[in-house]
Amino acid sequence: MKAHSQEPAVDQLGALLRAAVDAIILIDRSGIVTQFNAAAERIFGYSREEVIGRNVSMLMPNPYRDEHDRYLERYQQTGQAHIIGIGREVIAGRKDGTVFPIELSVGEFFDGVNSGYVGIIRDITQRKQQEEQLRQSSEELRLIFDNAPTAMTITDLEGQVLNVNRSACELLRYEPEELLRLRLVDLVHEEDRAELERQFGRLREGEETCQCEVRYVSPTAEVVHAAHHAAVVHDENGEPLMLISEIVDRSALYEANREAEELQRQLAHVGRIGTLGEMVSGIAHEVNQPLAAIASYASACRRMMLANQTNPGETLSILEKIARQAERAGQVIRGLRSLAKRSERQRQAIEPNQLVRDVIRLVEFELRGDGFQLELSLEPELPLFMGDGVQIQQVILNLIRNAIEAMADSGEGDTVSIETLVPEADWIEVRVSDRGPGLPVEVAQRLFEPFFTTKPQGMGLGLSICKSIASAHGGELSYFVNEHHGATFALRLPACDSSEETIEGDGA
Ligand SMILES: Nc1ncnc2c1ncn2[C@@H]1O[C@H](COP(=O)(O)OP(=O)(O)OP(=O)(O)O)[C@@H](O)[C@H]1O
Ligand SMILES: [Mg+2]
User: Fold this and answer.
1) Could you identify which of 79, 453, 482, 502 might form a hypothetical disulfide with 488, taking C-beta atoms 3.0 to 4.6 angstroms apart as the criterion?
2) For the structural domain made of 256-503, what CATH number should be given?
3) How many angstroms does the Cα of residue 402 sit away from the middle of ligand 1?
4) CA of 267 to the centre of ligand 2 (A)
5) Digitized pLDDT (tens) for each residue of the chain, 508 residues in all
């Protein structure tokens, strides 16, 4: 049976050796090559005649070449194999002297007659090159990531930090190891967390990129205003895998905006004080009226008491009148005080009609005194707007004063109309119209320029301050000619959610 199967087995082996893509080398127990297949010839550059009968160590570069014999001997004595049965990556040498990486697996055989070892060798030069290229490009990527001037983080889809670069640690003022345990949302100001969560949620649901403005808070409670851009990285199946975020420091911009806002506020204040200065005589008169009324009620009371004609009912009614007049004077003074005050930046939800009524209290007298009518048309169902009530009062006051001045200077028209309305959804508008001469084209073009005035005593600041207040509120101030050929100025402001905190009227 043995003799029977021997021949075909040799044939099978020959076929196997010829067909194999990998180099197959058989050696005897002393290391002499007994088989060297076609793939081995191709890989090593030797013909089989050059190798068969020689020590296999010729295929190895030093120091392996010299060690090989010793290694074989040791194995045969001790039975301790370092390579048999285990594939490993080693170095081989070609005929032309070049050295190359191979994957070598070794087996031992004994077919009853012969014994020795079989080595299967795969040239892994290309694979090694690819691995090296991959290693290099991932190293390059790592260097770019680490040294990028912008702060970058890699997170899982929930925002848990997997990797951060140096700029991110510097910007957020954390050590890299500290960040690795955290979620980005935990580093954000608590008021901004919901927004960042919402953006990450959108990315999980299929959005590719997102962007939002958030405040990061450092371990020492410093606040960094930042623009957060994030993008999804997909796996090979197109499934979202992780998020790469870029955090851009916006603190300088934020600071510049804050300074500009502060300047705008100061300018508005100076403008208001100027306007109040011009209104002083009118206002003094306005306050004087209730004071005069109080004085005359008081002396009537006094006369009655001196003449012993006191009647409790009558005295009470006079005292009530005094109280009413005092209240009227008090209202004017309160309105003045809030306008003159150098208020801190304050934004509150304000009811536009009430604000218009507060302004009117301050100019009513001047209007009536100069023989002007006031026409009011207030839309009852108005949304609120967010803003600095004092500044918006200032705008309306300026517009009314311009209207009065236009009509007084030209002698045309006698009515100022104030209207509140909803020009389109989510906006409110306050319009101040006059029936004066309107504006010549050259005036209309330069209307909002600072220091542009056609009045001998004018500063030319009124409308430019109004315009800056309007834009600081996210709104706008525009001009058009109305149906009476006079001027209409329209202050348009974004409406706000009525659930926010409300102040009404002077509120100061
Ligand atoms: N309702 C109006 N009708 C006609 N012209 C107007 C009207 N409002 C403004 N103007 C023109 O626009 C110019 C600029 O107005 P603005 O309020 O900015 O400055 P001013 O009124 O001249 O000075 P002030 O700084 O005291 O307000 C005015 O000088 C005037 O020529
Ligand atoms: Mg003016």
Assistant:
1) 482
2) 3.30.565.10
3) 5
4) 14
5) 444 444 556 678 888 888 899 999 999 988 999 999 999 999 999 999 999 999 999 999 988 888 888 888 888 888 776 677 677 899 999 999 999 999 999 988 887 888 899 999 999 999 999 999 999 999 999 999 999 999 999 999 999 999 999 999 999 999 999 999 899 999 999 999 999 999 999 999 999 999 999 999 999 999 999 999 999 999 999 889 999 999 999 999 999 888 888 878 887 888 888 777 777 766 777 788 889 889 989 988 898 889 888 888 888 999 999 999 999 888 888 877 877 777 666 788 999 999 999 889 888 877 887 889 999 999 998 999 999 888 899 899 999 999 999 999 999 999 999 999 999 999 999 999 999 999 999 999 999 988 899 998 888 888 988 998 898 899 999 999 999 999 999 999 999 875 544 444 443 3
- Domains 2-126 and 148-249 equal at CATH topology level: yes
User: Nearest C-alpha to atom 19 of ligand 1 is from which residue?
Assistant: 460
**Among residues 120, 116, 212, which one has the least CA distance to residue 159?**
212
CA 506 to chain centre: 35
Determine contact, residues 267/465, Cβ cutoff 8 Å. Answer: yes
* CA gap 86, 467 in Å, rounded: 82
Task: Determine the CATH number of domain 2-126.
Answer: 3.30.450.20
Residue ranges around ligand 1 (CB below 6 Å) = 398, 402-403, 406, 434, 436, 439, 443, 447, 452-455, 458-464, 487
Residue type at 294?
Answer: I
pTM: 0.57
What CATH number was assigned to the domain covering residues 148-249?
Answer: 3.30.450.20
Query: Which numbered ligand comes closest to the C-alpha of 447?
Result: 1
Q: Domain limits of the chain?
A: 2-126, 148-249, 256-503
